[in-house]
Write a structure and sequence with these properties.
alpha/beta; Rossmann fold; 7 helices; 10% strand; globular
Amino acid sequence: MNCFVLDASVAVAWCFEDETNPTADRALAALGTGAALVPLVWPAEVGNALISGERRGRITPRQISESLDLMAGLDIATDIDNVRSRMAVLLELARAHRLSLYDAIYLDLAMRERLPLATVDAALARAAEAVGVTLV
């Protein structure tokens, strides 16, 4: 696998010991020889999960720094497509598959770029399968 869309749920799973799972492990391994594409919202989603985890005592500032260093060393590119220009499509995906708008952004990116999707979010995985997007 050369390139895939990386959902924030997978990156967050790398950061919290109690969230490790085979999908996250496969995605991280794939980044050893490949690349990931993420939407503009990805850093904010990952950062929000990390700061929320810190506030709940699930992760320390040092662990956050180590996680950010790990992600900085990976080949992760950001898609700069204008979400506002795609809002109608995104809303329709969200409605049709009962997704959050954030998850619809990931699904739309995978569909537009014809790339597999790495996610540990069950609803997003079901939607991806329903529209023919391959899962990592």
